[in-house]
Design brief:
The chain has eleven helices and seven strands. The protein has 285 residues and is an alpha/beta fold.
């Protein structure tokens, strides 16, 4: 796929996978629109890497999102590559997740992704080409205990991506899903900040659930190295530059193991497998 001078839009570009992807695309000759809330980081990035233009947008604010999309729709050179990377997680058993907090997460992870895609599609259809990469997660195919609402947003991204891929293929537009496993970014720090102190507000009944699952998941990380965001950014750029990208890519710690088991086990089998991995299979309260 040609690239020199083409416009690429990367959301969530101030850190992690988005930042690395913006850098790599700029190095490949794209004019990169790097969008995020933290303008100080974007400005610093643009000063370091030629070809990156910072754009300040809060995707959780519908008015700001709409203003941003109007700007994208009015570009003289349409976006030919869209990387829908922005997203974050809330943790907690369902009873502990405030509905308003879940709505905000869906706004960023799902509805903003939909709206930004809508803003880019007319230009891509006119060009009869383009690439859309949606950042899902291995949680787009199953949910860890304590991550149900977050996994629900990624299940939604998977559904949107699958339908969109078929809908716009006739226009020569490619649609790709990326399912990262565990990656060393600020993602966990943001999740902790957004979630707050669960132990301070949960019912005592749930404390053994949190403690047991936390210990079970924590034991999985003993002696392993978590890869950095460059791993996923490289895959994204590979897909963008490919003449025939795959529909789905996955990489990252545990992604192979969990996604393989989700694919080969029936629902009861995977339930038993995940319950055992997280230590909750035999917990009785």
């Amino acid at each position: 796929m040609g690239k020199a001078g083409q416009v690429a839009l990367v959301t969530g570009a101030s850190s992690g996978i988005g930042r690395e992807t913006a850098i790599m695309l700029a190095e490949k000759g794209f004019q990169v629109l790097a969008a995020a809330r933290r303008m100080d980081r974007l400005t610093e990035l643009a000063g370091q890497v030629e070809g990156i233009t910072p754009i300040d947008v809060d995707l959780s604010d519908p008015d700001d999102l709409e203003k941003f999309c109007q700007h994208i729709s009015g570009l003289s050179e349409p976006v030919s590559v869209l990387i829908n990377n922005a997203g974050y997680s809330l943790r907690g058993v369902l009873e502990d997740v405030a509905i308003e907090a879940a709505k905000r997460m869906f706004q960023v992870n799902v509805f903003a992704l939909m709206r930004v895609t809508q803003a880019c599609l007319p230009g891509m259809r006119k060009m009869r080409g383009g690439t859309i990469v949606n950042l899902s997660s291995m949680a787009g195919k199953f949910a860890f205990p304590g991550s149900g609402p977050y996994a629900a947003t990624k299940h939604a991204v998977e559904a949107i991506t699958d339908a969109l891929r078929i809908e716009i293929r006739p226009f020569g537009i490619r649609v790709v899903a990326i399912r990262p496993g565990f990656i060393a970014t600020e993602f966990n720090d943001v999740a902790t900040t957004e979630t707050g102190d669960l132990f301070a507000r949960t019912d005592p009944d749930y404390k053994p659930v949190y403690e047991t699952s936390g210990k079970g998941i924590g034991s999985m990380f003993a002696g392993v190295t978590v890869p950095g965001p460059e791993l996923i950014a490289n895959i994204i750029v590979e897909a963008v530059l490919s003449d025939s990208p795959k529909a789905v890519y996955h990489a990252g710690l545990f992604s192979e193991e969990f996604l393989e088991n989700r694919a080969k086990l029936d629902d009861e089998g995977f339930d038993a497998y995940l319950s055992e991995k997280t230590g909750l299979k035999d917990l009785k309260l």
